Structures are given as structure tokens and as C-alpha cells.
Amino acid sequence: MLSFALTTNINALAQVTADETLETQVIDNGSFSFIEGGTTLDNTNLFHSFSSFSIPNGSGGIFLNDSNITNIFARVTGGTASDIQGLIYARGAANLFLINPNGIVFGENARLNIGGSFVATTANAIQFPGGAEFSLTSPVTPDNALLSINPEAFLFNQIAVQGTNSIENRATLRVNDNKSLILLGGRASFTPESTGQILMDGGQVIALDGRVEIGGLTAPGTVGLNINGDNLSLSFPDDIAKTDISFTNQSLVAIFGAIGGDIVVNTNNLKLLNSNISTVRNNPGSSQLQGGDILINADGIVSLEDESIIGNIGVERGNTGNISITVKSLEIIGSGIVADAINSNTNPIDIKVKDTITLSGKNSIINNQGIGGINIQAKNILLQDTSSLSSRSGNVNIQADESIILNNQAYIDTSTLELETTGNLSIVTNRLSLNNDSNISAINIQGTNAGNINIKTTELNAEDNSSIFAFSANSPTRGNGGDITIDAENILWNSSKEINAASDTGNAGDITINTNFLQLTDGAINTASFGTGDGGKILVNSKNSVVLDNADISSEIREGGAGNAGDITIQTSRLNLTNGSQIIAGISGSTQNLPGGQGKGGNILINAADAVIISGTNANGFPSLLSTQTDTGSIGQAGDIVVNTDYFRLENNGSVTADTKNSNNGGDIAINARVFEAFTVGQVFTTTNSSGNAGNITINATDEIIIYGLVSGIFTTTTANSTGNGGTIYFSTNNLNLANDARVFARSEGEGIAGDINIIAKGNYSANNSLVSASSEKSSGGDINITARNISLRNNSDIRTDLSTGQATGGDISLNADTIIALEDSDILAFAPEGQGGNITFNTRALFSDSLYNPIQTLADRNSLQSLNNNNRSDINATGVISGNIIGVPDITFIQNSLTELQDNPIDTNALIANSCIARSPKQEGTFLITGVGGLRSRPGDASASIYPTGDVQNVANDSVTSQWKKGDLIIEAEGVYRLANGQLVMSRECR
Hints:
elongated, mainly beta, single chain, 25-stranded parallel β-sheet, 41-stranded mixed β-sheet, 2% helix, 3 helices
């Protein structure tokens, strides 16, 4: 309101009046004020002085200067603002400096017609080299040579009475081609009534291939002036407060032309409300031409609202200029900072912000549509409500010292259409957060390669459908997906979308994640190729742990693709897969419209120093797993799975699988750990559904293998319609424990043979209500080879090979142990009802069982196997149409016949062990030697006869007292059971 009142008052008093200090003459003909005289120095600089300088609408101030004048300096000393509603005119190519510390207002009809550049300023004085100045009061004499050259600075050093704004513009101010237009406002002292700001309300400032500069101070200081031909530019001090600038109501600051020029704004706060700052270069000539730059320096806040634009536009050949913004804070609301090029190239958008960049609302953008790219440095960056920061072909480099937050469908991307390469995207910050459908992407559509994404942060958080992806689609030149590299101390990915590097025509990109902690919930990390190209590699290095909760990591050759799937490598201390989480490398099968993928499936390598735990299913029933697979209609071999860890655990449907459904072999599985555990439907299995062979399974557990629970186990299988062979199972451990319906299966339901089972336990093999089986429906059964120090089979724990149908041979069973115990319906069977039963070989000193095996084999039928099971005895049977051989069963009947029910009182075990070796007596005594046990029928209660001669145990000829055994002494184990002369049985060994 104060500004409006001031303007209205000036209109009523509109006049151009000389103050008689510099011989300025004003001739007013009623319509125009003709300005003559003044003081001229060296026919170069012309000085005028006015008590008032206001031009009403329809009128004009006409400077009748000589055409050879270079600069016209016009000061207004009367203490009132200048209100320019009409024309300002000057002859020739002279530059015009209008100086009024009390303010300058350009009304809607104001206009310029001068040959040179135009400067409107509220400075108190103009300084010249050598110390001379032109102020409101300084005299000007013709012999003052210091005033005959170009000025070098503007001085703000006196308090003047101004309106609300130091400079207002509602007009279209335009200078001739290649000239400069400067609005230098502000004041030496700020007051609530006089802000000293520069206001453009619907006004325009335009230069053709020239330069526009706007700025001001609100404290005493000096602004440097540089004159280079027709180019005038300012130099602002760094430590002096600057004025505020506001552009409203479709205001425009613009440079047009073939070459373009610069726009420079130096301010405290800059506000654009439905207004533009733009350079537009239109030149069909040389491609080497460079457009003008836009430079904005603000100590405070730069705010763009209501469809405001700061932009560089290039048309036809050549390059646009740079956009450089250095501010404390930047706010973009429904507006944008853009660089665009039509048949030309762009230069970078460079933004440096001390505090925060905020983009909010629809069409809030920082966008470079050419190769120039975007470079941003800030403390914090906030993008929300569909706002974006993007570049089409150029690189995007973003650095935020504290945080970058994307919210509500905001995105940062480099995207390309047509035959171009997408730029790379680099983000460096302390904390990166993606929320509510926000994403970071490098996309190439119908072009060449997608760009790479590099993220370095302390914390990466993603939630609610947010994503990071680098992919190429519909490329006519086999464009590749971009690589994604994330370096973060902690990653919390709670999003149903993915980190994805894919291509539908070329190679998929690689994904590399380096972190201390990765938690992936409801999301995915995926790299895939849909065309002629390889799938990308996935590498996760997590110092502490990787946790997947209903999440996936996958590398695939998808339907229609041809290439090798990338490997998946995870290096961590602890890997935890829960609630249906899956790590998959595979080749997809055919669909109705596309053939299956072709190539080699990727490998999965897990190195977890502490533990790998895989457990649970998701809401749809899909289990947590590690898997390599090839689907129906695909061509290529499945990859291998290798896990190296200290502790490995499968539970609650957790599994490790390698599956092939084509003519190529399935992948192998190798798990190397100190402890391996599988509980409650925890499974490791390989399968073939076609003509390819199922992969092998190797489990190396230095301490123990524990498999416990219903259907928990290790399986290699072939399906009913397959022709490939089953895989082999290898166990190597110290102790193997199978319990509570645990299973180890090598089974063939198709035409191929079942795989073998090879188990080595340096300590004990213990089975309780469990099954180890190599079986086949049609072809030969696999072999079972078990080597352990002791083998214990309890509670219906079977070891068996069986051939259900056909005349092939059942698998062999080989058991190697110091002792073998088979109790409580635990059977050892090599069974083939229509073929030849396999051989059963024992290599043991003692086999303990609760029943005798029958060496006479009965004729097999389909029900024979069932009759041997659940019959409350332990059977050893190699039945078939042609029975197999049972080899190496030791004679243990003397022990079996000596078994009696234990008394209630405890037995002193020391009494069962001889304190010396067993030796023949040298005495000539009569002996009765029984060389067999089959001659006399045993009666209940009789003791079994020893196969060795018996006599007294002789004492060692030594009068000294035998010392007691102590820790560190040699332990000599017993080798057999011996009957003494009194009929007592003791455990000892023969003397040697």
C-alpha cells in the first residue's frame, strides 16, 4: 500500500527537473522532456544532475547527447523516487546510468530506447579509478580526467529516504542487441518501512544476446563494476548484506538471441511467484556456439512457486549455457529449474545450497533435458509430492551432508528416449530415505545403455513401494542395464518394490551392495536379462548381517532371453532368511508368446562367518530358500550353490534347492559348516523334471549334522516323467544325528537311476525314528555307503535301497563302523521285488540287534517290503527275484545269548573291565575247547561259551603296587569280551 501511494503521488508530480549543478538543461514541450547540456569530460562521459526525474505515461525523457558519448550519468538529488511511466531515450550507442538513492519505479508503460546499456541504481555514488566519484553532491569539472574513463564501482554509503522497494518494475525494459541491462537496488540502511528490495510485478527485463544483472545491498558497501565493451557486469562483496528480490505476476527476466547472454542475480532472498528467469538461444549456425549462463547468488532463500521457472533453452545447434545457483536454502513448489535443448545440447545445472533444498508438489522439478547433467551440493534435500530431480542424458551428481529424503512419489532419475545413452547418477549423503512410491532410477527407453547408479550413505531407508532401478528397454542396439552400487553402513529396505538392474535387449547391470547391515523386508534385489545378453551379477558385502524378511534376491535370464544368468555372492557374518525370503539364480521357462530363456544359470555363493539361518513361509505358502533352477522350455544348465559358514540351520520349511526342468543338468549344492541343522521340514534337495541329471548335494560339517523333525532332510529326486539321473548325497562330519522322522533320500521316480548316498562320520552316526533311503521306481537304485566309528539305529530307523518295479538291480548298502546297533524295528534292507536285491556289506567288529537276521531269503513280492517294516524287529534283508548278498555279519550270538535283564541295583562297571590284558595260563591244565556254538542247544539262563581257551587271569610279575590311572596316561581300549575260569565275562584285550 505504501508503494502504491508513493507511485500515485509521483504520477501527479511527474517531471524532469535539472538541479542546476552540472549545467543540465531540460526543455519540456508538454509531452517530452528534452535533456541537453550537462558536463562532458573528454567527449566520453556526460554527467547530468536532476532534482527530480519522473516521466508520465505518454511522455518521455529525451537525452540529446552527442553520438560519440560513451556513458551518460544521470543523478537525481531531490530526495524523491523516480517514477518512469513513459520513454527514456538516448542518442547513439551511449550507456545510460540512472542514479537515484531514493528509489526508481518503472510503470507498465515505461520503455527504453537507448543505443547502449542501461543501469538503474539506488547507489549513493559511482566510483571511478583513481578515487574519483560521482555522488549526489560531488562537483564535476571538465578538467577532471579521472571522470573521463569508465567507472569501476557503485557506492552504498548514505541513508536515503525510499519507498517500500528500492526498484520496482512493471514494464517491459529492453536494451538493444548485445547490450547489458542492470538493476542495482538496495539501500545503506534497512528499516521496516523501507526494505530496499527489488520488485518486479508483471514486469519484464529483456536483452537480445546481451546481459541482465539484478542485485543490491542493504548495508554500506561497494559493488564492483566491470565494463568489457558492451558487456557490463557487477562484483558483489561476500560479507555485505544483500537486498531481497521478488518477481511476481508473470514477471520475466530473459535473454534471447542466436548467441545468448548471461543473467546474474545477487540477492539475499529471491522469490519467484508465477515468474520466469530464462535464456533462450536460437541459432541454426555453428554447433560450437555457446549460450548464456544463469547465475543466482543468494545469501538467504530462493523460492520458486506457482509454475515459476529458472531455465536455459537451446534451439537448433550449439549449446545452452550453464545454470549456477548458490544459495542458503532453495524451495521449489509447483515450479522448476530446467535446461532444455531442441536439436542442440545443454550444459550443467549446478546448485550449491548451504542448508536445505525442498521440492514439493506437482511439476516441481530440477530437470536437464540434454547432456549437461545436474550437480547439487546441499546440507539437506527434500523431494515430496511427485516432485523430481532428473536429467535425460547427462550425469546427476548429488551430495547432501546430512540427508536426502524422497516422499510421496518423488523421484531422482536419469532417463533417455531414442538413440541416446542415459547419464549416470551419483548420490552421496549421510542419510537417504525413500518413502511412499518414491524411486531413484536410470532408465533408457529405445536408446542404448541405461546409466549407472552409485549411492554412498551412512543410512539407506526405503519404505512403501519405493525402488531403485537401472534398466534399458526397447533398445534397437541391444542396450544394457546400468550397474547399481550402494555403499551404506546400514540399509533398511521395507518396500514391496525392488532394487533392479535389468535389460530387455542386452546385458543386465550388476548390483553391488557394501554395508554393515542389510535388512530387506517385503522387497527384492533383482537383475535380469530379457534379451540377448547376460544377467547381471549381485554382490552383497555386509560386515555384520543380512536379514531377508519375505524378500527376494534374484538373478535371471527371463523368457525370450539368451545369455548367462549372473552369479549371486553374499559375504557377511550372518545371513537370515525368514517368512518366504528367497535367493534365486535361474533361467525362466517359455510362455505362450515367448520361448524359454537360454544360457547358464547363475551360481549362488554364501560366505557367512557366523551363521546362515533359513526359515518360514510367507502368506502365500512360499518357503524361504536358496535356489538355482531352470524352468520348462528353457535351455541351459542350472547354477551351483555353495555355502560356507560356521553354523547352518534350516527350519519351518526353509530349504536349499537346485532344480532342472530341461535337458541340462541341475546345479550342485555344497554346504560347508561347523554345525549343520535341519528342523521341522527343513530341506536340502536337488531335482530333475526332464532329461537333465539332478545335482549333487555335499554337506561338510566338522562338528555335527543334525536333522530333526517331520519330513526334514536331504533329498535328490527325479520326477515321474523325467529321464535324467538323480544326484548323489555326500555327508562328511564328526557326528551325524537323525531323529523324529528325519529323511535322507536319493530317489528316482522316472527312467533315470537314483543317486548314491555317501556318509562319513568320524564319530557317531545316530538315527532315531529316521530313514536313509536310495530308491527307484523303474531304474536302478542308488548305493548307500556309511562310514562311522559307531552306527546306532533306534526306533524304526531304516537304511534301505529299494527298486519298486522292473528287473534292474537294487542299490548296495555298505556299513563301516566299529560297532553297529540296530534296535526297535530298525531295518537294513536292499530290496527289489522284481529285480535283483542289492548287496549289504558290513565291515564291523560287532553288530548288536534285538533279533537275528535270517540268512535264507524269501521270494520277494510287492508286499514284502511292507511286511518287513513295522514288525517289531530289526531286519537285515537283501531280497529280490535274485537276492543280493549279505556280507560280513559278525558272529555275535554269544553276546546275544548272554543278554539278561538288568537288576535294580547298579552294576559296578569297573568289575566288567579287566585291569590287565588276557593271556593264556602257562600251567599244564586240562582244557575243554568249544570251537562252535551251534553244537549244543542253549538253555535259558546258560552263559554263552567263549571261543577262546579260558583260565585264570595271571598277575603281572611285579611286586610294586600298580599306580592308578591319571589324566595324561595312555588309554588302551578293550578289543573283545572274554570268559574267565569262573564264568565271569570281562572286557579286555589279548596280551601281545
